[in-house]
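Retro notes, item 3 of 5
We never archived the inputs for the zinc ion complex last cycle. Fixing that now. Sequence and ligand:
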Amino acid sequence: MIQETFPMIVGEEEVLNERELLGKVENGPMMNGADSVRFIVIHCSATHADCDYTVEQMLRDHKTRGFRTIGYHFYIRRNGIVTRHRGLLEVGAHARGYNRCSIGICYEGGLNADGKTADTRTQEQKTALLELLWKLHKLFPQAIITGHCELPGTTKTCPGFYPSHEYVF
Ligand SMILES: [Zn+2]
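Structure as it came back at the time:
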């Protein structure tokens, strides 16, 4: 059963209350408030489906790109383990033009054997993603669940499927 009340587990952490969940992880800029979250944007890491791409690798790569820390709020490994990298209302770095009004979730994978964008989610990732989205939907009922590729004005192909078709709560 999916837990809907606090304390809830979000990203392998027990969140004691809403204030803690909405607060900062690091000293980055914050959105104006919960109403600012208009989109929940799903991404893939654009790595091969049979390759590990660890949190440490992602952190290194994002720092190389000049980010303070991992640009996504959440990362879902192939085994379904979810980690959180930003406070929910911290401005992320994952979707140009939308970072001040969205929460970013990335799943590990997204490239098939030919190196093309594809839906490579494991069953564990699908389960973890559904649970996470359900919790976020409870916190931000106004937010539209969408894929990076579905955002107006983007040329991205990630995450390899259409979340707005799949996650209609
Ligand atoms: Zn993306």
